[in-house]
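pinned: reference chain
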Amino acid sequence: MKITVFNGSPRGKKGTTNIVVEAFLAGAVEAEAEVENIFLVEREIKHCLGCVACWVKTPGKCVQNDDMEELIEKFIGSDISIFATPIHVDNVSGIMKDFIDRLIPTRMPYFEVHIDGETRHLNRYNQKSKIMMISSCGYPEQSQFQVVRLWLKRFSRNFDMEIAGEIYRSWGWLLKAEDDSLERKIKAYKDLLKKAGHEVAGNLRLSEETAAELDRPILPKEMHVEISNKRWDKAISLGKKVWRLKEK
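pinned: its structure tokens
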């Protein structure tokens, strides 16, 4: 069992998204899965040129020379590929979108009519692996993931990949909060993520019960505005002090 995470957080290992990913992968490792957490920010991924050379000139291979050839090999060679990303303006991060766009060589230019009546491009490698999404945001509502949820459904359909599970963590920055009063809640959530990783590694699917538990808020929504705004006041205050020191 090979699980590969394509981690699209611009903050890489320091990002909130990675806290969720690492806890999930810890559970997958316990279930004896082979795992890899690839930080896209550490790789060279150029913008897709939209030239379709990967379909007509160099079939299955992009004309650009960067890290995508290796990443595509990992994508098509994994039992489960996980897209991990923070929410940026209601969607995936920019670097994640670049990565997704550059997966076009795994398709062929020829069309087929799907069972739902819409067309889609043929799969070049007859890939039978599954796809999963892990995402985090600073808002308190799970509804903030509406766009990503719909996008994943469209991607899985067009790339002919079954969805193994979805994990969306609103108010994600709480997982990094240094607050003794939150310690038990954070640990409980991370333990649940480990359970999810164990499930996916063992069953190739996240159970509906665990998914529902992961969707529950860590704290009541009513606390969000006050706590968040105080946090930003502090950050801005510290930022101004740092800026003054730099000016001197």
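why pinned: The longest strand covers residues 80-86. Helices lie at 16-30, 53-56, 68-76, 94-101, 146-158, 183-203, 208-215, 224-247.
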